[in-house]
Write a structure and sequence with these properties.
This protein has about 180 residues and is mostly helical. It is about 65% helix and about 0% strand. Helix 3 packs antiparallel against helix 4 and helix 4 packs parallel to helix 6. It is elongated, with a radius of gyration of 26 Å. About 5% of the residues have low confidence.
Length: about 180
């Protein structure tokens, strides 16, 4: 009987410890609100707490990285964005990581991440051409090439000639039958 009580107490203590380390809906809401309002210091603090409890939460870690960029804590941002990019590679995470590398003057790493993003579906040319973090690289021929190839990845219909095969239909047509009478209208 004493063993059963010890086991029950141990389970209760374990459950209590888990509950204390759980992230509450209020904490998530506060973190998201701070992020949306671009209150970077508050967002960093809130997402650090979430990531401490949920280390594999890619969304929270990504937002922590972006908030750290917003707070100009670029090296810390890079660390979190590298983790999230390794866990769940995608163009959104790649864009943020490339921004961190750009801010830190890590041109080769920035280009490597942008290359990887093309294979993942690309980053819109509008984003690449308007983001202030890439401003100093826009005159670089390699950056221009990445923007062009990323555009093709994001907008495959623009890049493939097969999507232009029916362009001869574009315009106004006066359709007539064999006798020359107007057909259709």
């Amino acid at each position: 009987m004493k063993t059963i009580r010890i086991v029950i107490v141990a389970i209760a203590l374990f459950a209590s410890a888990i509950a204390q380390n759980a992230v509450t809906p209020e904490q998530r809401t506060a973190a998201n609100d701070a992020f949306q309002k671009q209150e970077w210091k508050a967002a960093v603090a809130a997402y650090e707490k979430i990531v401490a409890v949920e280390e594999k939460n890619a969304g929270a870690r990504y937002r922590l990285g972006v908030a750290l960029l917003g707070a100009n804590q670029n090296a810390d941002a890079r660390k979190h964005l590298e983790i999230v990019m390794a866990a769940s590679p995608n163009p959104v995470f790649a864009a943020a990581l490339a921004r961190a590398h750009a801010r830190l003057g890590e041109k080769d790493k920035m280009f490597a991440v942008l290359e990887q993003s093309i294979k993942l579906g690309g980053i819109s040319p509008e984003t690449l051409n308007s983001d202030a973090d890439f401003a100093s690289f826009r005159s670089d021929a390699m950056f221009a090439d990445i923007v062009k190839r990323s555009d093709a990845a994001v907008n495959p219909c623009k890049a493939s000639p097969s999507f232009r095969e029916f362009d001869f239909w574009i315009g106004e047509w006066d359709v007539r039958d064999a006798a020359g009478k107007s057909a259709g209208v």
